[in-house]
Amino acid sequence: RGADPIAGRDVPDAALRSVSVDRNSTALGEAVLSDSTALAAALLEAGASVAAPWPGATPPLFFALVNRKLAVIPVLLAFGADPDETCRGQSSRQLAEKLGLSELLQQ
């Protein structure tokens, strides 16, 4: 006995897209924090949102820039992340310019 290894394989797990209770984060936020392009892409393909998960939250693209998680930025942009979505009074585009990383947002 044990867990069915293929259970839920074809159905996106809603829990992966929901808020993490212990870290006040989302699964996509955790993927960004670990700079995991594969996990970020899998979550986005399963329906995770590239927008801020709730009012006042940090958008994943902004979060990636602040934490210098540069590998995931092209993945977030490919799935429609908006470089002009604001957080703390500035957009990801403005933050990238301040950090000298504006070329990462060119697509």
Any overview of this molecule?
The protein has 107 residues and is mostly helical. Helix content is 38%, strand content 7%. The chain is built from six helices and four strands. The chain has a two-stranded antiparallel sheet with strand order 1-2. Strands 3-4 form a two-stranded antiparallel ribbon. The termini are far apart. The model is unreliable at 3-13 and 17-21 (pLDDT under 50).
Major β-sheet annotation = 2 strands, antiparallel
How does the overall form come out from the CA principal axes? globular
The averaged pLDDT comes out at 82
Q: Helix amount, in percent?
A: 25-40%
Which parts are unreliable, with pLDDT below 50 for 5 consecutive residues or more? 3-13, 17-21
What fraction of residues sit in β-strands? 5-15%
Order of helices and strands: HEEHHHHEEH
From the alpha-carbon coordinates, what is the Rg to the nearest angstrom?
15 Å
For this entry, give a set of tags.
107 residues, mainly alpha, two-stranded antiparallel sheet, 7% strand
Set down the secondary structure blueprint.
Blueprint: H1 14-17, E1 19-20, E2 25-26, H2 27-33, H3 37-45, H4 60-66, H5 73-78, E3 86-87, E4 90-91, H6 92-99
Antiparallel strand pairs: 1-2, 3-4
Question: What's the short version?
Answer:
With 107 residues, this protein is mostly helical.
